[in-house]
Structures are given as structure tokens and as C-alpha cells.
Amino acid sequence: MSKSAATGRWLLLFHQIPPKPDYFRVKVWRRLQRIGAVPVKNSVWVLPYNDQAVEDFRWLLQEIEARGGDASVFRGDFVDGLSDRDIERLFRKAGERRAVGRARAARRTGRMRGRT
Question: pLDDT tens digits, residue range 15-25?
Fold first, then answer.
């Protein structure tokens, strides 16, 4: 078994967030978006394994648990179902969506500036 296979390429956050208050669910979702995580299932998010990802997911885990939720962080590889290529594709698509969103926001800002 290679070292990569023994340690894991991916970091996963599994969470259960209390249904109320609504704002907390949104806060967690926004934080996950900001750190670049992508969802692979409901309440399961993934990042490539690195020290920053560990720090980000640990921070979220503590925040979720402090609000009465439950969370776990795992390091590993996908064995069946999703492949590394599938996960990489999710990251590319998420990056493309963020780029489109930024471009739209820039166009709106440009139009608004032109009106003043």
C-alpha cells in the first residue's frame, strides 16, 4: 500500500446541524463555500487533505458542536462509488460557478457605477 493510500488524500466533514436557528445553517454553508469545500452527500463535505483544510474543518466542527450539533472529520480515500476524478470534477465545477458569480457581481457593480 502506498503512503498516499495509507494516509488518505481527502478530508471529509460529516455534520448534523440543529434545524434552528436557520441562520446557523446558512453560516455553516457560507463558511464551507468560503473555504472551498464541496458537498459529496447531504451533510458531507470534502477538501483535499492539507494542514489548512484540517484547521478549517476543526474550526467548523467546534462551532457546530458549540451550537448543539454533531460533526466528525475524517481523512481517507474513496474506495467505491466516487473516484478521485469525480471529486476533482466537483472542485472544478464549483470553481467555475464561483468565477461566474464573481463575473456577474462585477458586471452589476459596473452597471450601478454607470448610473451615478
Answer: 999 989 999 99
Q: How many residues does the chain have?
A: 116
ω before 39 within 30° of 0 (cis)?
A: no
**Domains with residue ranges and CATH for the chain:** 3-115 (3.30.70.240)
Regarding pTM above 0.85, the answer is no
Cα separation, 47 vs 19, in Å, equals 24
Dist CA 63 CA 28 (whole Å): 9
> Which grid cell is 87?
471529486
pLDDT in tens, 19-46: 899 999 999 999 999 999 999 989 999 9
Distance CA 28, CA 45 (A): 11
CB within 8 A of 86, min separation 6: which ones? 78
